[in-house]
Design a protein that fits this description.
The chain is of the alpha/beta class. The chain has one domain: Ribonuclease Z/Hydroxyacylglutathione hydrolase-like (Metallo-beta-lactamase, Chain A, 4-Layer Sandwich), CATH 3.60.15. 20% of the residues lie in helices and 24% in strands. The protein has helices at 79-86, 104-107, 110-118, 150-159, 234-244, 264-276, 290-300, and strands at residues 18-19, 38-44, 59-64, 67-71, 96-98, 127-131, 163-167, 171-174, 177-179, 197-200, 203-206, 215-219, 222-227, 250-255, 281-284, 307-309, 315-317, 321-323. The strands form 3 sheets. A 9-stranded mixed beta sheet has the order 1-7-6-5-4-3-2-17-18. A 7-stranded mixed beta sheet has the order 8-9-12-13-14-15-16, covered by helices on one side. A two-stranded antiparallel ribbon has the order 10-11. β10 and β11 (203-206) form a beta hairpin. α6 (264-276) packs across α7 (290-300). It is globular.
Length: 329
């Protein structure tokens, strides 16, 4: 498949989300830039080591070739900011963030982080990259009240001078760093609540989290994927990443895979697929599940050094692999 490229002029101030068009005239076969330096540090997840506070949520700082991106913002308003400070990480220089989907446990820190950090740097977290569908209405089945908190957060974020960039397909947001856009659901990885409804012109339908996006980082070793909850399914996501970027091994997967409720059969199928993709490192955080990490480790032929439960401050780098800290070592 041809590599998709985007040419964008980004401004800090916006009054509405910007729909980003992808250049379909990019020359076919153009080689993708490959990242040489990568470090991913977990700032929000359930397990805490000697540093930070755990929560049901996810966030990670992605440092790639001298640039930095915040992936998700955790659940509680102050968790990511407090954990970053305790770990000695200054987020005020980070201008770009990715929100994997609309759920509260990935977007709860958005406004507090933007407000706090912009006092030091007006451009801090001023560009938010999201998948199409994140602002769609999810009315409550009980009383019809809106349950999608991102609709209100959109207005609050834009009031601070922040800007949303909305994607409906894969896009290279930095050299060698891709956002999947909404992921096609080829396999039946139904990793979402069956009770939530999505409002469409055709009426209410089951909310399959159509906006769910992941980050793909192209490295010489293979593709590194960062997921929030992986509601689209990690197998669907990897297959889409391999078709959008290049058919390389899935060198590392970091983040939530929403397998904590998965059956033994589902875990076996997922782990076997991951082994087939050449998975070499798994830092399973948030909703992946403790048992799921161990089952994937066993089936995919990984070790206690290469398949680890993520903790606050745990990290992955191209040079050193996974640093699990003490508790998960």
């Amino acid at each position: 498949m041809s590599i998709l490229h985007v040419f964008m002029i980004l401004s800090v101030v916006s009054t509405r989300p910007e729909r980003v068009d992808v250049d379909s005239t990019a020359p076919p076969g153009l080689p993708s830039h490959q990242v040489r330096s990568l470090r991913v540090t977990v700032l929000s997840t359930m397990l805490a080591d000697f540093h930070g506070v755990g929560e049901w949520g996810f966030a990670a700082l992605v440092e790639v070739d001298g640039r930095r991106i915040l992936f998700d913002t955790g659940a509680r308003p102050e968790t990511v900011l407090a954990n970053a400070r305790e770990l000695g990480i200054d987020l005020s220089g980070v201008t770009d963030l990715v929100l994997s989907h609309h759920h509260w446990d990935h977007t709860g820190g958005l406004i507090p982080l933007r407000e706090a950090l912009s006092k030091q740097n007006p451009a801090a977290l001023s560009r938010a990259h999201v998948g199409e569908g994140i602002f769609l209405s999810r009315p409550s089945p009980e009383d019809g009240q809106e349950t999608n908190q991102m609709i209100a957060r959109r207005a609050a974020y834009e009031a601070t001078g922040g800007k949303f960039l909305v994607y409906d397909r894969p896009v290279e947001i930095l050299p060698g760093v891709w956002l999947t856009g909404p992921v096609p659901r080829r396999h039946a990885e139904r990793l979402w609540s069956r009770s939530v409804r999505l409002k469409t012109p055709q009426g209410l339908v089951e909310d399959s989290l159509p906006e769910d996006v992941s980050l793909i980082i192209d490295t010489p070793e293979g593709l590194v994927l960062i997921t929030g909850c992986g509601h689209a399914g990690i197998v669907n996501t990897i297959e889409y990443a391999r078709s959008a970027v290049r058919p390389a091994p899935a060198y590392a997967v970091i983040g939530g895979l929403h397998l904590f409720r998965a059956s033994d059969e589902s875990l076996e199928w997922t782990a076997t697929k991951l082994k087939g993709f050449g998975l070499a490192h798994l830092l399973g955080a948030h909703c992946t599940g403790i048992e799921a990490v161990f089952r994937i480790r066993e089936t995919a032929g990984l070790t206690r050094k290469t398949a680890v439960i993520g903790a606050i401050g745990s990290s992955f780098s191209l040079e050193g692999g996974i640093d699990p800290l003490e508790l998960a070592r």
